[in-house]
Design goal:
Elements (H helix, E strand, L loop, with lengths): L1 H18 L15 E2 L1 H9 L6 E4 L3 H6 L6 E2 L6 H11 L8 E4 L11 H10 L5 E4 L5 H4 L12
Parallel strand pairs: 1-5, 2-3, 2-4, 4-5
Length: about 150
């Protein structure tokens, strides 16, 4: 019975993986990105200007429920629409603009959104891009710590 359950679970996993257009290789990889810890970003946001451009590259539902005040919703970083919106948003900015990307949809090692968004900005020539390192998710690593949150659009 356990073997049959495992087979069914594996079949479901393969089916769901086949339906998604995001390869597992897109999961967040801090070895290839400049990252920023939540405590560091909080200090930056509490300091005097200039502030970095904060861009949310995750799900609109998550952004609507809770996001960092002042951040802008770009769309999911793993979709063509999200990447197009991101590129449009930054297209006229100086290449040295401080930009912080974040998602927080799931554990860092499974996030499909930050790598494609980060790579897109680097390909455009941006040199001061960082990604907010949320080890577990936005709720655990930002909201539950009592850091500032905005809701809605």
């Amino acid at each position: 019975m356990q073997i049959h359950s495992c087979s069914r679970a594996l079949a479901l996993l393969f089916f769901v993986s086949a339906l998604t257009s995001v390869p597992l290789a897109c999961a967040a990889d801090s070895a290839n990105m400049k990252i920023l810890a939540p405590e560091e970003l909080l200090r930056v946001l509490q300091a005097k200007p200039p502030k970095p451009l904060l861009l949310h590259v995750g799900s609109h539902m998550f952004y609507w429920q809770a996001h960092i005040p002042g951040s802008e919703y770009m769309g999911q970083g793993n979709t063509p629409e999200g990447l197009q919106h991101l590129r449009q948003r930054v297209s006229g900015l100086p290449k040295k603009t401080a930009i912080v990307l974040y998602c927080g949809c799931c554990p860092w090692s499974h996030c499909p959104n930050v790598n494609p968004a980060y790579d897109a900005l680097l390909q455009m020539g941006f040199t001061n891009v960082k990604v907010l390192f949320l080890a577990n998710n936005f709720g655990t690593d930002w909201v539950d710590k009592g850091y500032p949150v905005a809701k809605g659009d």
